Amino acid sequence: MFDTILFDCDGVIVDSEKGLSMIAADVLRSTFGIPAIASDFQEFIGMGEDGYIGGVVRKHGGVYTIDMKEEIYRQYIERAPSTVESFPGTKDILSRFKSEGFRIAVASSSDFVKVSINLKVAGLEPEFFDAVITGSDVEKKKPDPEIYIKAMNACRSSAERCVVVEDAISGITAGVRAGMKVVAYTSSLSETDLLNAGAFAAVAGPVGLYEVIHEYNENIFAG
After folding, report:
1. Which of these, 220, 95, 213, lies nearest to 162 by C-alpha position?
2. Which of 50, 108, 173, 217: disulfide with 9, CB 3.0–4.6 Å?
């Protein structure tokens, strides 16, 4: 029975993948001479900015440097209010889960500064959650399960009681490797791709998530 929900951030709490890829491609082209386009980033979603940006830079034969991430972050912070939005109903559904006694955490491979901006866009503060674990807190990024294990421990839960909410293949893999069930949002990839990656359910957004989690718990309770 689920009593702990571990949320990825980009593509789950906020609809940011399209905006971030456009900003990152713009910066790499205009500032660093890397001929990136937004679609280049698709295969690196969920791997943290070092993997996300660095993967595209290396794909084009470049050498990734930390100033690339810093400049993309700078522009992302400036442009996020107009390019990023939360999924409809996110704050209400998360508040409903909390009122029902669920423990909820963020487990994002992004650095804390970017996660904070995303949560602000969604009208949420880090203190709203039982735990916020970011790429700044782990040595190994998704698809390694470290971040979900840390989030689970911070919530004083166990793998069988946790459900992971993801939108990326790397994140689904991380959740499965942590011994957890995964519900995937279809915000970035097709339902078929998400289920093939190991998710046990795929939904369009927070309302579908609420229904799936309660249906699962009711079935477990009914035995």
Report:
1. 213
2. 108
Same domain, 113 and 198: yes
pLDDT value of residue 124: 96
Q: State how many domains the chain has.
A: 2
139 and 65 together in one domain: no
Contact 62, 111 (CB under 8 A): no
Percent of the chain with pLDDT over 70: 99
Residue 155, classed as helix, strand or coil, is: coil
What are the pLDDT digits (tens) for 83-137? Answer: 899 999 999 999 999 999 999 999 999 889 889 999 999 999 999 999 999 999 9
Among 50, 83, 116, which residue terminates a domain? 83
What's phi and psi for 202, nearest 5 deg?
A: -130, 130
Please say if 8 is a catalytic residue.
yes
Query: Longest Cα pair distance anywhere in the chain, in angstroms?
Result: 59
The span from the CA of 69 to the CA of 136, in Å, is 14
- For residue range 138-172, list pLDDT tens digits in order: 999 999 999 999 999 999 999 999 999 999 999 99
Please tell me which residue in 8, 15, 40, 167 is annotated as part of the active site.
8
Q: Which two tokens stand for residue 168?
A: 């990326």
